[in-house]
Amino acid sequence: MTIFRKIFTETHHREQKQLAENPPHTGFDRKTAVILVWTALGLAITKYYGDTTFVSGVLKDWHLDSLDNSFRSWLDSNAHAKLHHLEWWVGSLIFVYFIVPVIFIRFVFREKLSDYGLKRRGAFHSWPIYVLMLAIMLPLIYYFSSTASFQRRYPFYDPVHGESLWPDFWIWELFYFSQFIALEFYFRGVMTLGLKHRFGYYSIFVMTIPYCMIHFGKPMPETIGAIFAGIILGTLSMKSRSVWLGVAIHYSIALSMDMFSLWRKGFF
User: Fold this and answer.
1) Contacts (Cβ under 8 Å, ≥6 apart) of 79
2) What whole-number distance in Å separates Cα of residue 32 and Cα of residue 202?
3) d(CA 17, CA 82)
4) What is the pLDDT of residue 1?
5) Residue 96 to residue 186: CA distance in whole angstroms
6) Contact 141, 260 (CB under 8 A)
7) How many CB atoms are closer than 10 A to CB 177?
8) C-alpha to C-alpha distance for 197 and 110, rounded to whole angstroms
9) Closest Cα partner for 102 from 15, 38, 43, 49?
10) Are 83 and 171 in contact (CB under 8 A)?
11) Quick check: 5 and 233 in contact, CB under 8 A?
12) Phi, psi at residue 117, to the nearest 5°?
């Protein structure tokens, strides 16, 4: 626990010192407003427009029947329907949490993406945390993977018995990985690093609120765990100014969850 305490304490002291030396101006803070409003909109967009049933309903309401037919045909008309539904969901996440924020950063804020965590230098200096978190999480995942609620939820691409995992399951895992890049970039980059000029170290706690909310509907232990994960990953991002260690931790845990679930279901 010493390494956790050292990282938390040092990062907190550094950020609060920088905030005291460079206090935020008292006028309207456009960047803070844009990030927080887009966070709220993003939660709504991914909740509704990430749902293919909702999108189809909107197209019908707008009397765009031909477009809806094409959309439904792409989703449901072949053996890859399960994958296509999940691809749409991931696409909505990438749009909200990566594509639009990149446009904001480059053309509205006129800043560098590297200032929002997309840099490799120094990204893995805290690699022992990666090993320690996996050592803590793997036994917990093993235990919870035996529960019915866990097995109903994971993996998102749930193959039927006798179905080959190649290629659709592994294609899904590539899409799954890409959405972790988008999530880490937004929550640990845009929100954590993008708001520290206003809130200092406490931008981590601001970020943790919507980060917990995107886990609503998942098993309760995972949703509660997202609070602690958000604080830990946010601190690592703030310390290193990079989101890549968070991507590695996040996806390694998610992949482990999928593998344990498949093993419980007899695929291995």
Assistant:
1) none
2) 14
3) 50
4) 58
5) 9
6) yes
7) 15
8) 16
9) 38
10) yes
11) no
12) 100, -5
Instruction: State if pTM tops 0.90.
Output: yes
| Stated length of the chain | 268
Q: Smallest Cα–Cα separation from 240: which of 129, 78, 124?
A: 124
Determine the Cα angle at 13 with ends 127 and 102, to 5°: 60
Cα separation, 85 vs 96, in Å, equals: 17
C-alpha–C-alpha distance, residues 88 and 157, integer Å: 13
Question: How far is 93 from 151, CA to CA, in rounded Å?
Answer: 23
Judging by beta carbons within 10 Å of its beta carbon (0-12, 13-18, 19+), is residue 152 exposed, middle or buried?
exposed
69-108: b (≥16 Cβ within 10 Å) or e: eebeeebeeeeeebbbbbbbbbbbbbbbbbebbeebbeee
DSSP designation for 77 = S
Instruction: Determine which of 103-117, 128-142, 181-195 has the lowest per-residue pLDDT on average.
Output: 128-142
CA–CA gap between residue 64 and residue 203 (Å, rounded):
42
Q: What is the DSSP letter of 96?
A: I
In this model, does residue 92 exceed pLDDT 70? yes
Mean pLDDT of all residues belonging to the chain: 94
**Res. 246: pLDDT tops 70:** yes
Q: What is the mean pLDDT of residues 182-203?
A: 98
- Say what the pLDDT of residue 237 is: 96
Instruction: Give the pLDDT mean for 143-147.
Output: 93
What is the Cα–Cα distance from 30 to 28, expressed in whole angstroms? 6
CA dihedral 123, 259, 53, 211 (to 10 degrees): -40
Distance of CA 257 to the CA centre of its chain: 15
